[in-house]
Amino acid sequence: MVTLPEKQSQNITSDSEISVKKIHYQIVIIGGGAAGITCTSLLLAQNDSLDIAIIEPEEKHYYQPGWTMVGGGVFQVEETVRNEQDLIPQGVTWIKDYAVKLDPDNNIVLTKEGLEVEYNYLIVCPGIQINWHLIKGLKEAIGKNGVTSNYSPIYAPYTWELIQNFKGGNAIFTYPNTPIKCGGAPQKVMYMADDMFRQLGVRDRTNVTYCTTLTKMFFVKEYSDILDKVVAERNIEVKFRCNLKEIKADNKEAVFDLTKDDETVEEITLKYDMIHVAPPQSAPDFLKESPLAVPNNPFGWVDVNKDTLQHNRYPNVFALGDASSLPTSKTAAAIRGQAPVLVANLLALMTSKPLENRYNGYTCCPLITGYNKLVMAEFDGYTFTPMSSFPLNPIKERWSMWIMKKHILPWVYWHRMLKGQQFEGNYIKFMQWQYKK
């Protein structure tokens, strides 16, 4: 076991001189993203003597909800990133390595560099895996010649480059045939692009098309109805049950499978001058191949109870966030609702108490419908019922919610959520009053 000086963090990296291959921690957290850091901060707020290690290979931590704003020219990508070291709480060991194999029967996580990390309790939250390779030709085409995606900080700036330099033609935006993080993101960028095309005077010679594998614009009917009106008013063509399967970059063609009403599938090819791709996604491969995954599930989500966030077969394992099987949208707002429940139940388990806390499925997807317009789509992800944190009708486009998305939510993420603090009290009351119109 690695002994740490009191209140001082330690990094274990691939080039460290480690005399043992086995190390042990009371709590091991796989993933140092939004979920991992938030849970760590909440745990230490309850008990600062806990022995915690985070397994996270990346040195940079991104505010991923900001990538849409990068693609729309509102943020610079540098505004969405911090050093991981600066976010990991003091007293926590950072194992800067990849988890590659899970052995929950023996309470072991194996890392890429050969460490066997033993645990008493495990929290699994490595985020989602972007599977560029599942669309033929996409890996070779992405980032040039009109092919882009806001699902990476590498390509999001290119989205803005394409939008602001667009001269007219065919602009296509896609939604894949898998669950994805932030289900509204593929169309948020479309509305911003549509707005900018109008400002640049090229919209009258531009065809904007949304190709989605879904059967409606959004999961919650009330919000979907609003978006139906938005696309109709803006003359955006929507092709439902339409799955992108290939990019032919040489000809600037996108190949789709279009499922018809009679369930037959027709292959169609659309020319593009610009295409924004939301790629297929899944849990990371090491989870798909582990005993923790939902049995016979192709996406590899961690099999947890949707109420308690405890694993359904391994009681000392918990999961939250994008890689979990929780049947709600994969957003940072959902994590903000999940983390306190998970932490309370984990601490209860550690003290042999019943797991009484319940996650109610709350999530939020700020639906940008243009510059200075946004629908704050809060809802119960289990029942698909609209909710609201504000004394306002949530089913409405508002300038005030754009201000919330642009200025308030990033601040909340960096200065409240990741520090395990709730965003409540006089400040939120001021925002409710100031921006209720």
TrEMBL record:
Domain (FAD/NAD(P)-binding): residue spans on this chain: 25-145, 197-332
Enzyme type, top EC level: oxidoreductase
InterPro entries cross-referenced by the UniProt entry: FAD/NAD-bd_sf, FAD/NAD-binding_dom, Sulphide_quinone_reductase
Highest taxon above the source species: Bacteria
GO terms assigned for molecular function: oxidoreductase activity
Keywords (A to Z) from UniProt: Oxidoreductase
Record EC number: 1.-.-.-
Transmembrane segment boundaries: none
Gene3D superfamilies: FAD/NAD(P)-binding domain
PANTHER family in alphabetical order: SULFIDE:QUINONE OXIDOREDUCTASE (PTHR10632), SULFIDE:QUINONE OXIDOREDUCTASE, MITOCHONDRIAL (PTHR10632:SF2)
Protein name: FAD/NAD(P)-binding oxidoreductase
